[in-house]
Write a structure and sequence with these properties.
Helix content is 44%, strand content 15%.
Length: 611
């Protein structure tokens, strides 16, 4: 007993947070089903998931990024779980050492080097025993997978990817990034003698599965096609291959829209005969590159092939559940072809192979939506609905502003000026801290920020902006700063700004309109495909209101990271009053205001403790 509460024998903390013990029991009871766990950041989902699977023989724990492996590794050590991890093979490769090469190129090069016995790190796996020392390295205090990989390379002189892949056969817990779960061909590179049916699967940040294109997609641009044509001409001249690649390049010239526009697959897919010629050409290119190599294998593994990227693209084009789109990317100044899944089959069919599924996130939609997405009735655990607020409700204040809207028909100069003026008034009402302003899109953000004249300290997210850029700017600011970010971008998905005591520096989150997905051909095709199975109403919700609500909740979650944080949330769009959005968000609004002065008054009162 701890503080009068019975605690599981191997629970690694002094006491449970509200709902943890009950969630462990519920998940354990229904292992083998599709289970959904909705719980806010700071609840302790990781330790709940691991303890709920304590009697499972094998667990595959999937996260989006390497950084998100850190807390899972930390909890696995505390629970004394036999674990290993696997992320990008090219990022783990000791021959690359920080150099960049596309995944498809890396694996072709790696395979050739291993086959020819030219990689000493791989050969060393059979030359000396390493498993005991590998186990020691995995259970040291270091939790960063990148640092653990460096220790394996420097101390054992072996290939960390294949060493850890071999250890996966003997580990209860294997932590992987998304591609190793959702893409069969990538799973096979690590799990040669295992299948997904050998595992119970945990998916962290599982709201991502509602956007299948964010998990699997292919891309081609003019630069890649020009490079592929040069490769073929240099290494293996083939008139048919060059003619095909040139035809795709000509097709790209007709792409003019800034939105995704459908391209008929018949114009892209060359047929099996040309496809085989492309594959043969790639092998010939790689073998000639290897023969030309007069220095180290490390130089060969860095070599890229644009033709390989074309082939990767075509493997998706072949699949019925994918469609091709063209877009003129104004930001990068290039025209692109994208191939993307137009239903959830690529996700749900893969998940259905597992022994059981646990989907976890703080921003999952209601049960009926998840049932539709998963194609079956889920065991749905909403922690705060079942067991009460995890963090004090009075620490968050929600205000809807009704005199602005990001509706497409209202996107005129006057409205952008209103948003700029609103944000300026919020800035001056706050004494200290970070204001996170979240926009529906980059063009919308540009139209607003160009009209801001009285906010001296602000940071605008660009395509290449990193967390480190933002953190550095915040630390070097005057103590009050606005961070402008785009909904569903990397900042709103994962940024965490904390002070030295671990409290959130983000004091105000402003939703600068409702972040509905862009109305392009991809959205139309996804909705049409889903409506055939789920009906038009559900399909419309899944492609409009549901992703918008998830993006809003993701943004809100950047401010509240623990029970000590307080945040003021501004929902700046009159459409937040719609019943549909209110239901999906599950938020109780504390105030509805129609003037910037009233909003400023509420912000001042909240942070002075009067609300």
């Amino acid at each position: 007993m701890r503080n009068g509460v019975e605690v599981m024998e191997n629970f690694p903390y002094e006491e449970y947070r509200k709902g943890q013990r009950e969630s462990i029991a519920l998940i354990s009871k229904f292992l083998g089903r599709f289970i959904v766990l909705k719980a806010p950041t700071g609840f302790g989902k990781t330790v709940v998931a691991l303890l709920a699977h304590k009697d499972a023989d094998r667990v595959l724990y999937a996260v989006r990024t390497r950084n998100e492996m850190v807390p899972v590794i930390r909890e696995a050590k505390k629970l004394n779980i036999n674990y290993c991890f696997i992320f990008s093979g090219r990022r783990m490769c000791p021959l690359l050492r920080g150099s960049d090469v596309r995944p498809e190129d890396f694996w072709v090069n790696c395979r050739i080097l291993r086959f020819k016995g030219l990689c000493d790190f791989y050969a060393n796996l059979d030359r000396k025993p390493y498993q005991d020392k590998l186990g020691d390295i995995l259970h040291r205090r270091e939790n960063d997978p990148r640092q653990i990989v460096l220790s394996i390379i420097n101390e054992l002189k072996i290939c960390p990817f294949f060493a850890l892949a071999d250890r996966a056969h003997h580990s209860k817990l294997v932590i992987v990034t998304y591609p190793y779960l959702f893409q069969e061909e990538i799973f096979r590179t690590a799990f040669t003698d295992l299948s997904l049916s050998d595992y119970y699967v945990v998916v962290d940040e599982a709201h991502t599965i509602l956007n299948p294109q964010s998990i699997i997609e292919g891309e081609l641009d003019e630069v890649t096609l020009d490079s592929a044509i040069r490769e073929v001409k240099q290494y293996c001249p083939s008139e048919e291959v060059i003619k095909y690649l040139t035809s795709i390049k000509e097709l790209l010239k007709s792409v003019k829209s800034r939105l995704l526009r459908r391209v008929e697959k018949a114009f892209i897919f060359p047929g099996e005969g040309i496809l085989q010629l492309l594959e043969d050409s790639l092998i010939e290119i790689k073998l000639k590159q290897l023969r030309e190599l007069t220095v180290r294998p490390a130089d060969f593994v860095r070599l890229g092939s644009s033709l390989n990227r074309v082939l990767k693209f075509l493997t998706y084009v072949k699949r019925d559940e994918f469609q091709v789109y063209g877009i003129a990317d104004i930001t990068e100044g290039v025209k692109k072809l994208k191939v993307m899944p137009i239903n959830y089959d690529v996700i749900t069919e893969r998940l259905s192979e597992a022994k059981g599924i646990l989907l976890m996130s703080g921003t999952l939609p209601p049960k009926e939506v998840m049932d539709s997405v998963c194609g079956q009735e889920t065991v749905y655990v909403d922690v705060e609905e079942e067991f009460g607020n995890i963090f004090p409700r009075e620490n968050t204040f929600y205000a809807v502003v009704t005199y602005v809207s990001s509706s497409y028909k209202l996107r005129v100069k006057e409205m952008f000026l209103k948003y700029a003026d609103l944000l300026t008034s919020i800035y001056h009402a706050l004494d200290k801290g970070v204001i996170l302003a979240v926009y529906p899109s980059y063009p919308f953000m540009d139209e607003v920020t160009v009209n801001i004249i009285d906010i001296p300290d602000h940071i605008i997210e660009g395509r290449g902006t990193t967390y480190a850029d933002i953190a550095s700017s915040v630390l070097n600011s005057s103590g009050k700063v606005v961070v402008h970010a785009v909904a569903s971008g990397k900042l709103t998905e994962g940024i965490e700004l904390l002070d030295e005591a671990g409290r959130s520096l983000i004091k105000v989150v402003v939703l600068m309109g409702i972040p509905y997905p862009q109305p392009d051909d991809y959205l139309i095709d996804l909705r049409r495909s889903l409506s055939e199975r789920l009906g038009n109403k559900v399909a419309t919700d899944l492609t409009t209101s549901v992703p918008a609500a998830i993006r809003v909740l993701q943004a809100v979650g950047r401010a509240i990271r623990s029970e000590r944080d307080r945040a003021f949330i501004v929902l700046a769009d009159r459409r937040f009053l719609s019943l549909k959005l209110r239901t999906l968000l599950g938020i109780h609004y504390d105030a509805v205001v129609n003037s910037k002065n009233r909003l400023s008054e509420l912000i001042i009162k909240f942070f002075r403790g009067y609300l």
